[in-house]
Specification:
By secondary structure, this protein is mainly alpha-helical. It has a single domain, classed as Orthogonal Bundle (Ribonucleotide Reductase, subunit A), CATH 1.10.620.20. The chain has 16 helices and 2 strands. A two-stranded antiparallel sheet has the order 1-2. The two termini are about 45 Å apart. Bound molecules: fe (ii) ion (2 copies). One fe (ii) ion binds next to α4, α5 and α12.
Length: about 400
């Protein structure tokens, strides 16, 4: 019988040292004594996975809740929700659930074995897989090992858990594609080390994790909080918001010509998830800035411009490497324009001025990202998910 069960008169004959609801004052006095002896009033846990979280018997004030440095507002009790964008993103992510093995790769297997793909098209597929088979894993590691610990909003943490799982699904998806179509695994899985244009993108992101992984790191000083904000911007704005998108263009261009349709369908789901990740990340970044306006100095904003410029150059170099001679109506120049165009859009989202002014050479990408507008553009299975879930973000 549990301690919380209703006591009846017959139970009064039982001897128990554990008091329960409704028992006499002696038992309550015992309980108070046990509480005094066994339970300290305050547990201060410094610099652990809770951050500087204080476990006390006092009610926290939800108004103290912050995305960073908000331990006073409670990091473990979800409700009442303050950062609504995070809770909305969590629910939308759940509604968009998918798994790689639900998608047939049969047509891709046949096409890859045939002589209908050009060498340049094969190179583009291989390099795309070479980048992505580790990119989402790098993002997941950054989320779990660097970001999560320092985020003090329980609702943001809920979404980080969902996002981390989705990154695992994406890594699973790339593995499944490589295995299904029988790519040379040792070649693909080592590309992130052996191909300079991929290595340099990964290094750019990973180098921004280094200081934050230090066990003594906290976000308490403005300088450290800026370092943390820099990490959020590199990962959510540059990595997920710029580094992924030229590959998304390429994979959806295959689909528009009815080639590699299984691989492309996997990428449609991934792109939908990634748009959510980026949008959540941008909301979180802007909230950190709103809650800590002293961090958003002109010097820091210059730093952000520099990171975005560097990211764009790395992505343009990568694009040149993936399709040096152009394929499927894409050229290195159109990829450059597209990357610059989306970089401007990302800058605007974090309230900075655009710097490139490039036109979007692929207006159809906007429709592809906004699934709600073009339901028939997508294949059967996506439509089924649309019936069952919300696709708004
Ligand atoms: Fe991902
Ligand atoms: Fe992501």
């Amino acid at each position: 019988m549990s301690d919380n069960s209703t006591q009846t008169s017959s139970s009064s004959t039982q001897t128990s040292s554990v008091p329960s609801v409704g028992q006499n004052t002696d038992a309550q006095a015992n309980a108070a004594q046990v509480k005094d002896i066994k339970r300290p009033q305050t547990v201060e846990i410094e610099n652990t996975f809770y951050g500087d979280f204080k476990m006390t018997q006092e009610r926290p004030n939800v108004n103290d809740r912050r995305v960073i440095n908000g331990e006073e507002g409670d990091v473990v009790q979800l409700s009442p929700i303050k950062h609504q964008f995070a809770w909305d993103a969590y629910k939308a992510g759940n509604a968009n659930h998918w798994l790689p093995e639900e998608i047939s790769m049969q047509k891709d297997i046949e096409l890859w074995k045939s002589d209908e793909l050009s060498d340049n098209e094969r190179r583009a597929i291989e390099m795309t897989m070479g980048f992505f088979t580790t990119a989402d894993s790098i993002v997941a590691n950054n989320l779990v090992l660097a970001i999560y610990k320092h985020i003090t909003s329980p609702e943001c943490r809920m979404y980080l858990l969902r996002q981390s799982f989705e990154e695992a699904v994406h890594t699973h998806s790339y593995q499944y594609i490589v295995e299904s179509i029988g790519l040379d695994e040792s070649k693909i899985f080592n590309m992130y080390r052996e191909i300079d244009s991929i290595y340099n993108k990964d290094m750019f992101a990973v180098s921004l994790t280094e200081g934050i992984l230090d066990s003594a790191f906290t976000t308490k000083s403005d300088e450290a909080a800026q370092m943390f904000l820099e990490n959020l911007i590199i990962f959510y704005v540059v990595m997920e918001g710029i580094f992924f998108y030229s590959s998304f263009v390429m994979m959806l261009s295959f689909q528009r010509q009815n080639k590699m349709v299984g691989t492309a369908e996997q990428f449609q789901y991934i792109m939908r998830d990634e748009s959510m990740h980026m949008n959540f990340g941008i909301d979180m970044i802007n909230t950190v800035i709103d809650e800590n306006p002293q961090l958003w100095t002109p010097e820091f904003q210059e730093k952000v411009y520099k990171m975005v410029r560097n990211g764009v150059e790395l992505e343009v170099t990568y694009g040149n490497d993936v399709i040096p001679y152009g394929i499927l109506g894409l050229s290195p120049e159109s990829i450059r324009e597209y990357v610059q165009h989306i970089a401007d859009r990302r800058l605007e989202r974090i309230r900075l001025k655009p710097i490139y002014g490039s036109e979007n050479p692929f207006p159809w990408m906007s429709e592809a990202i906004d699934l709600g507008k073009e339901k028939n553009f997508f294949e059967r299975r996506v439509t089924e998910y649309q019936v069952g879930g919300t696709l708004e973000w």
